[in-house]
Amino acid sequence: MNNDIERVLYSQDDIKAACQRLGAQLTEDYAGKRPLVIGVLKGVIFFMTDLLREMDLMADLDFIDVSSYHGGTASTGEVTLEQDISTDIKDRDVIIVEDILDSGRTLAYLKDFLEARQPRSFKVCTLLDKPEGRVVEARADYVGFNVPNEFLVGYGLDYQEFYRNLPYVGILKPEVYANK
What we know:
- The protein is of the alpha/beta class.
- Helix content is 23%, strand content 29%.
- The chain has 4 helices and 9 strands, in the order E-H-E-H-E-E-E-H-E-E-E-E-H.
- The radius of gyration is 16 Å and the shape is globular.
- InterPro entries: HGPRT, Hxn_phspho_trans, PRTase-like, PRTase_dom.
- Pfam families: Pribosyltran.
- This is Hypoxanthine phosphoribosyltransferase.
- Its cofactor is Mg(2+).
């Protein structure tokens, strides 16, 4: 897998430092509260786990599974709900945790979908923010890194379900996915 990476953008140490920074900020912002942290599957599993370890507060966890890439290298433009959360979020402080904010479609969908359930507050934490990829307005409240408009894999990010287990975030060589 490492041979398919053009270059590493963020090492394990970089990611750990970002998780520590974000975890400290969330701990401060949610002091005295018990937020519901909702991870967006599947890509978020590594980031959410490491982020939660850095948060010194009581929090409930849930997961939602939505898809807009459907195995490709770009969003299809259609977001589909694969699995809903199981927690009632009415009057709860909700933190959505994402691996990457790219086109904005998934986040816009989630925001509309979940805000209809009347949470007290709704914030978004993402490891990676790719502003150049936006096609709809979307914004994260907590960001680990702003990233270039490249196809990224590793640390949960995939191409056709592969590369998620790389311990870093890297740029996938275009020849890996070209003509596929």
